[in-house]
Every structure is written in C-alpha cells, then in structure tokens.
Design goal:
heterodimer, A: seven-stranded mixed beta sheet, 14 strands, B: alpha/beta, Rossmann fold, five-stranded parallel beta sheet, 9 helices
Chain lengths: 315, 289
C-alpha cells in the first residue's frame, strides 16, 4: 500500500498554549507562569512582556521550580509550570509526588516538547517515561491535547478545574484533528472515526497518524475506529471497553515508552475486564540518533506502522 | 529578566499587648505541654522521632504562641502567616503544638500513627488543620516556602513565611536552589530557621558531610543571618518577630537534640529510638520538674 498524502497544514501546539494562557491571565490575576530558564523554549516571551511580575523564572533548578509552584498555589495562585518534559518529570519527580500530587495543589505542570520532540539531542532530552511516572501518582490528571483546538481547551480546563495536572504541550507539528463542535471533556476520549473491525487509539502526536492509518485500512476493506485519548489519567475506561467489545481488536500508539505507558494502562484494563487481542506501539528503548520525525518512523509510530499492527490482528 | 519589586509586609506584632515576661511564660508553657504530649504520643505509637521533636519544640512554641499571625478557627484565612515544617519527621512536635494552640482537640494526639489516624508519621495538609504542605522527604520545605513568599509579594495583603529546616537536611541540593532563588528575588518576608542540633540520623553532621561554616554559606548566598540559642524563648521571639528586611532571613538556632531529657540529649541513637516504660517515667519526671 502507499502512504496517504496529507496536505493539511500543521501547527506547533506551543503557540496555541501561549495564546490561551495569555487570554486567561488577562482575565484572572491568579494565573502565573513558573519556568526554569525556559522562557523561549516554553514560548513565554509574550507572557513575560505583558506580566513580568507573574513570570517566575527560577533558573536551571527544577526541584525548586516545582516546590515554588506548590507554595504559589498555597498562596492562592494558579501556577502553570513550563519546562522541557524530561527535566520537569525526571529531575523533580519527588517534588511532583510530595509537593503537588500528595499535597493536592492546583498546579498545572506543562511538559513542553514532550516525547521525542528533541530528536537528535538524544534520550537524555526525550520525555518518554512521563506517562508511566505520572500515572503512578495518585491525584494527578494527565492531559495530552492532540491539536491546537484541544490545546486551548485543555489549558482553559486546567485553569478552571482545581486539581493537579500534567499537561503535554507538543512541539512536533500536527494537523487539526478535532471537529470544531467537539469540546475537551476531562477523562473522555473522542471518537474521531467509527469502525467495527479494529480500534486504533492514539494520543497527542499519534492521533492524526491513526486517522491516516484508518484510511490505509479502509483501502484494504477494513473499517477502523479511531479514538483520541486526550486524557490519559483518568483513562476513559468506558470508551476503551466499548471499543474492545464492538471491534474486538485494539492497537495503541503513543510517543512514550511501552513500559507503563498508555498501552500498558489499556492492556491492564482489558486483561482484567475484557481480554482483547492487542498491539501496543510506542518507544521500546533509548532511541538511536535521529530527528523526531525519523524516530517516530523508527518505532513504527506512522500510519503504515499502525495499519500493519492492525493487519496483524485482522489476518 | 529583572527582579520584580517586592512589597514588604508590615504588621503589628501579634502580642504587642503582652509584656515580655508574660509572653515568655506563655511560650515556655506551650513548650512544656508539647514535650509532655510528644512523650505520650511516642509511647502510645511505639514510633517517632523524639530527638528532633525536642530540638525543635522551643522554636515551634515561640512561633505559635507569639509570632505567627494565624487563626486556628479559620485555618485557611488567606492573609495568615505560613509556617512549613520541612523536617517533617518532627511531626509529633508540630501536631502537639497545633493542638495546644487550638487547631484541633488535644485528645486527638492520642491517635498518633494509629491506623487511619489523621496524624500520620509525616504531616498531611489535607488531613490536619494548620499544615500548609505535605513534608517528609527532606529538602522540600524551603522551595515551597519560597513560592509562598513570592505569592505574598504578589498579593494585595501580604503575609510572612517561616520554614524550619533540619541541619542535616541542608545536605539536600534542592535547598540551595531555593536559597539562591530567595536571595535573587529579595524575599524579605521569608525566614528560614535551621534547627542546628548537629546530629543527623546516622552520625554528627560534621562527620557525615560537614555543613560548616554554615552561617558564612548563607551569607555568601545573600541572606541576612542570625545565630541564637534555639532554646532561649526571649532570643527566639526577638529574632523571629523582627520586621522583614530587604533580604530573606536565616536564623541558625543552635539546639540540643532531645532537649529536656538528660539521657536523650545530644545522643545520635535517639533520632528515632522509642523509650521504654521506665525511660518514659524518667523523662516525664524531668520534663515536669
């Protein structure tokens, strides 16, 4: 089969993130940004210009950064902590556990450039363990918007519903996938395409690719359902179980390690409740050198890779 | 970026109407009650950190009797001073201080570390009134206190933030990140108190990973530093009630681990040893004397 041409324009979700954060900050003086020398990489330049007192840059000090956010939340503010995903989670994991999750503060931890967005910079700069680490922490909510529209809505939702969040803000350019009339609901997957033969579950970067994979499968006569799992935690168990019962086969795809990632969570849910043939696509080890785009191909996180995994289940 | 200007919180001393002898009596009475309650709590639970509880008791009693602007009946009062016990393993001393200050009934102290008790071995803000943030792992309290002080500077009704650190805890690097941030942002509303009892769990601090010259280190990082006897209530009140300055303030409170009980004082094995029934009686006699 041949790859489907995708002429749709693509967007860096950081732009939508910043625009929405600024819009909300103008309305609500409690919103502050906390960062680790990451004004540029977190696209906070405009925020800093408009609200210099409300941009707290602690420098290259992630443990301090997360603790400071907890203190700001204690003081009545709503901190958006903006830092490159690998350092936010890996360096400050105990602060996230004790100061944010266990203390149950309304803090939005924004993982910028998550997954393998930093491509050639290598595994030290990849944030692929985040789903596993953060999913293990009670009280946390994990949001993974798939496009600009979802990014805006996720930011507004996190600002307006007090609880601790981990929000992935993608850098890898993605096309719009969400119908305009579909709003972001916490803990609800979005069915982007109906189908009866197999379900493809994507999150973030992999959602548009799952839609393309469904086209490839349609060309072979198979109708694939496509779910956008925009909230990883709490998982939309009802949507997954319906998909398992109604399509009988599940393929998951995520820009994260398969050890404890979304695929593992779904496999656990199904193993207990409705054992279903599955394939879990994701990152299976420290990545070799390559661009983000190359690495997504390397780990089969492509329309063809997802279609091939589905065909293994269908044949 | 430039450092934002920080408004200095200025409020009258809480007990300005009390004269010094009355204030000290009140503070000492609270210390005595706390030490006796801690002894009962640890005896009851068969667990606890009595050495660190007793080194920090006079600091806690001074803060809660005379310094902090807090309202036990309105624990979420937005303008309250924030107090954070970074050395969360001294939870028993904090719980006893809060209970004897009216945050919750003293009778609840008898549930310390019981199954499903709100009084966990380390403080939980979601269960106990008067706790500002959950602590236990070391090196967490100061960054949170810095965030609280930044929040105060951004708020129309500012407050002061006090955090107590164990001395051994200063071996955690996260503290030094926060010490830099507080100095850079000139957080004058922040006071860090170091419970300098010179012992950590396994040995003396200076034999483990030495902290000295500790005052010079804080000064070099841009803090205003005071050194006092951490069991002298008058000295504690004087330094902790000083008006905020232009820089964050560090109070190195020289203390004795296990203060108040002769056979516990300054002995490394009493970090979390539990006294026998005979030792409890002996300790009670000394504390009541």
């Amino acid at each position: 089969m041949t790859a489907v041409q995708n002429p749709a324009p693509t967007f860096d979700n950081r732009q939508a993130f910043t625009e929405e954060l600024l819009r909300l900050a103008r309305q609500d003086s409690r919103i502050v940004a906390v960062c680790n020398d990451s004004v540029g990489s977190s696209n906070l330049g405009a925020f800093q210009k408009e609200f210099p007192d409300r941009l707290i840059n602690v420098g290259i000090a992630e443990q301090d950064m997360v603790g400071v956010a907890a203190g700001l939340a204690n003081g009545g503010f709503i901190p958006f902590v903006c830092a490159a995903g690998p350092f936010l989670t890996g360096r400050a994991l105990e602060q996230i556990k004790a100061d944010i999750a266990y203390s149950n503060f309304h803090v939005v931890l924004c993982a910028m450039s998550p997954g393998m967005a930093y491509g050639e910079l290598g595994p030290t700069h990849h944030s692929i363990e985040d789903f596993a680490w953060i999913n293990a922490l009670d009280n946390m909510t994990i949001l993974v918007p798939a496009d600009e529209q979802q990014t805006r809505e996720a930011v507004a939702l996190a600002a307006g519903t007090p609880r601790p969040y981990y929000l992935r803000v993608g850098r890898f350019k993605v096309p719009a996938v969400t119908p305009q009339n579909v709003t972001f609901e916490l803990g609800r997957a979005v069915v982007l395409r109906e189908g009866q033969d197999v379900t493809l579950i994507g999150t973030g970067t992999t959602v548009s690719r799952a839609l393309e994979a469904a086209e490839l499968l349609a060309a072979q006569g198979y109708q694939a359902r496509v779910l956008n799992m925009a909230t990883i935690k709490p998982l939309d168990e009802a949507a997954v179980l319906s998909a398992a019962r109604e399509t009988g086969r599940i393929v998951t795809a995520e820009e994260a390690t398969t050890a404890g990632g979304m695929g593992s969570m779904i496999a656990h849910l199904l193993a207990v409740n409705h054992p279903t043939p599955m394939r879990t696509l994701g990152v299976t080890g420290f990545a070799p050198t390559g661009s983000a785009s190359y690495l997504l191909e390397h780990f089969h996180l492509t329309p063809q890779g997802m279609a091939d995994a589905a065909l293994e289940l269908l044949r | 970026m430039t450092t934002p200007s920080i408004r200095r919180p200025v409020r009258p001393a809480r007990l300005a109407d009390l004269d010094a002898p009355q204030r000290e009596d009140q503070s000492r009475a609270l210390s005595r009650s706390v030490r006796l309650s801690v002894l009962e709590m640890i005896e009851h639970a068969g667990l606890g950190h009595i050495g660190g509880d007793y080194s920090v008791t006079d600091i806690l009693a001074t803060l809660f009797s005379s310094v902090l602007h807090v309202r036990p009946q309105e624990h979420n009062w937005p303008e309250r001073d924030r107090f954070i016990l970074s050395k969360g393993h001294a939870a028993a001393a904090l719980y006893a201080t809060l209970a004897h200050s009216g945050f919750f009934p003293v009778a609840a102290l008898r549930t310390f570390m019981d199954p499903l008790s709100m009084l966990n071995g380390h403080p939980n803000r979601n269960k106990v009134l008067g706790i500002e943030t959950n602590t236990g792992p070391l090196g967490h309290g100061l960054p949170v206190a810095v965030g609280s002080a930044v929040a105060s500077a951004l708020s129309p009704q500012p407050w002061r933030t006090y955090v107590v650190l164990g001395d051994g805890e200063l071996q955690e690097g996260s503290n030094w990140e926060a010490i830099m941030t507080a100095a850079h942002r000139k957080l004058g509303s922040l006071t860090a108190i170091v419970d300098r009892n010179r012992l950590q769990q396994g040995a003396r601090t200076e034999d483990t990973n030495s902290l000295e010259p500790l005052a010079d280190k804080w000064r070099a990082f841009g803090w205003e530093v005071h050194e006092i006897d951490g069991h002298d209530h008058a000295a504690l009140y004087e330094v902790l009630s000083m008006e905020p300055g232009e820089r964050p303030r560090c109070v190195i409170a020289h203390t004795t681990k296990g203060k108040g009980v002769s056979f516990i004082e300054d002995r490394v094995e009493w970090h979390h040893k539990v006294p026998s029934a005979e030792q409890v009686e002996q300790a009670r006699k000394e504390l009541e004397a």
